[in-house]
């Protein structure tokens, strides 16, 4: 129960960072979606349940306070995590630096592109800048989580 409350607390904290910190750190008025990047990184590190929680609850929080139509962040995040569950694991069993950067770059570019279309703004090259920015943040998240969460070794005794 305590772990669930901690997860919800960190999801709310991530949404607050998205609303408060990211507009300050924007590039040409655009900034990457921290909730989406976090969900993708969690999925790449095999934290499926946490990735779905972050995409669902975090996306809902972004929908409540964001300028995009209600449901976009939640549905997009959950679809991306769901697709990654099948596609990335099937075709890329080993995740490395470049693959992480490419996946997050493409997802951030797709998110920025769809956001611009929904908000009816003019398309520009800032999509690629935001996608690269998202890729860099994704790499930072990825390495931070790999350092913080070191898998415990399982020692087998006997033939079982």
Give structural attributes.
single chain; 160 residues; mainly alpha; 6 helices
Please provide a written account of the structure.
This protein has 160 residues and is mainly alpha-helical. The chain has one domain. The mean pLDDT is 82. The longest helix is centred in the last third of the chain and has 23 residues, at 97-119. It is globular. The chain has 6 helices and no strands.
Percent strand: under 5%
Task: Supply the number of helical segments.
Answer: 6
Number of strands: 0
Order of helices and strands: HHHHHH
The residue fraction in helices comes out at over 70%
Radius of gyration based on Cα positions: 17 Å
Uncertain runs: none
Largest sheet: none
Oligomerization = single chain
Quick check: average pLDDT? 82
- Class derived from helix and strand content: mainly alpha
